[in-house]
Amino acid sequence: MAQDITLKVAGKPYRLSAPTPEMEQLMRLAAADVTEMLTRFDARFPDSSPEDKLVFAAIQEAAGKLSAQKKMSRLVSEVKELEGDVAAYLEGMKK
To answer: Which CB contacts under 8 angstroms, 24+ apart, belong to 29-38?
Structure first.
């Protein structure tokens, strides 16, 4: 059952719905991460608008997501290759 929660990002509250306790925890961690990122961008780009800083954060997070997806795809390929190697080895042991 979904639970209504309030998250603060950069001091501003946002009411959201978390479908599971695990998702609530992830959402809270994400809100803290975004707030920390915006704090860093405030220091690095003091003259940029809050919207620009949110765009910087979104691009950084999207690039991280794409990098993780690429790595995951590579790992899945390696696992499949290793599964084939193990199957071939076990087949050779039967002979």
So the answer is: 31/7, 34/9, 34/10, 35/8, 35/9, 35/10, 35/11, 38/9, 38/10
Tell me the whole-structure pTM to 2 decimals: 0.75
Find out whether 56 and 41 touch, Cβ atoms under 8 Å: yes
Angstrom distance (rounded) from CA 66 to CA 46: 28
> Percentage helix, strand, coil, to 5, in the chain?
75, 15, 15
pLDDT tens figures, 9-43:
989 999 999 999 999 999 999 999 999 999 999 99
Q: What is the mean pLDDT of the chain?
A: 95
